[in-house]
Write a structure and sequence with these properties.
Blueprint (H helix, E strand, L loop, with lengths): L2 H51 L7 H25 L4 H53 L7 H17 L1 H5 L7 E9 L4 E9 L15 H9 L3 E3 L17 H4 L2 E7 L13 E7 L7 H23 L4
Length: 315
């Protein structure tokens, strides 16, 4: 319903409410006046006439018509008073519907529209990343190169993950003041730590590129628990240790969403994850499990397929 039409209906409903109130008020007032003043006088006159004559046939035509009409009016006004006690105004129902329409217009419809747009971009990103993965697998299958280089792997990961960076505002609601950071950490068995393998971040963000031990920080915690983790505000988290972060991290990485890269091919010893995919922001409440979980897990699965294909058998 358009705004102008809603205003017109609301205005007309207000006028109808006033008219309805006046009509109802005067109807009830006159009904009470009849029942308390006029009706007792007529009933008294009827009873007096009846006891004086002793027969209804002694009533004149005018008296019969008067008493009959009075009885009919008495029934009508009784119905009016009864209706007033159980009355439900149409204008009140219209008013309720107008308020409900405003809620839908201001809250429900915008939220549904936002969810639709977000889902559309999630599907787009998933599709593009899947196409990139298929192209990479074809390249790996047709390549005669022995082994791989770190630069090649980083470039391949960038092809899969670049749609996340490109559509970050539409997917996660990043504003112009939000510092985005997308990173992939892979587990290094020799060093027993998660090393930064790929990262794309805001130019205003100064990063250190440090590694994480399993169980330390949100990266290590996600790895050791092997489950998706979300934090809306790291400064209010009771799960993450302050000692596991560097000074000033809370200003750069206030909220995060971390997904383990599942080792579905059982390439690692102990069925540990291959690594951790991390989204961070310097703004609180940047991410939502309800909105972002399926997309994050989908991208993590694509990465696990690529790593399986690229690395082959790992000890």
């Amino acid at each position: 319903m358009r705004g102008e039409e809603l205003k017109r209906i609301s205005k007309n409903n207000s006028k109808n409410k006033v008219v309805e109130g006046r009509v109802f008020y005067f109807s009830v007032m006159f009904s009470n006046f009849w029942m308390t003043l006029i009706s007792p006088v007529i009933i008294g006159a009827f009873i007096s006439k009846y006891f004086a004559t002793g027969e209804l046939s002694k009533f004149t035509l005018g008296e019969t018509v008067l008493f009959s009409l009075s009885a009919l009016l008495h029934l009508v006004f009784t119905g009016v008073l009864l209706s007033s006690s159980t009355r439900k105004s149409v204008t009140h129902e219209v008013e309720r519907l107008i308020k409900q329409n405003k809620v839908f217009k201001k809250v429900v419809v915008p939220k549904a529209s936002q969810m639709y747009q977000n889902l559309k971009f999630q599907q787009t990103v998933s599709y593009i990343s899947t196409l990139e993965l298929e192209n990479l697998i074809d390249e790996i299958n047709s390549s005669s190169e022995a082994g791989y280089t770190h630069a090649r792997v980083t470039a391949d990961l960038g092809r899969i993950l670049s749609p996340l960076v490109k559509y970050r505002a539409e997917l996660f609601g990043y504003s112009s003041t939000a510092l985005y950071n997308f990173a992939l950490y892979l587990y290094n068995k020799e060093q027993d730590q998660l090393d930064l393998t790929w990262r794309c971040h805001d130019d205003r963000l100064i990063t250190t590129g440090r590694s994480w031990k399993p169980g330390f920080g949100h990266v290590g915690l996600t790895y050791i628990l092997d489950e998706i983790k979300i934090c809306h505000d790291i400064t209010k988290s009771t799960e993450l240790s302050v000692s596991s972060s560097s000074l000033g991290d809370e200003a750069k990485y206030k909220s995060f969403l971390s997904m383990p890269i599942k080792d579905s091919a059982k390439l690692s010893v102990g069925n540990k994850p291959l690594g951790v995919l991390v989204f961070t922001s310097n703004m609180s409440n940047q991410f939502s499990l309800e909105r972002d979980k399926m997309l994050g897990l989908t991208i993590a699965k694509l990465l696990s397929i690529y790593l399986d294909k690229r690395f082959g058998v790992r000890s």
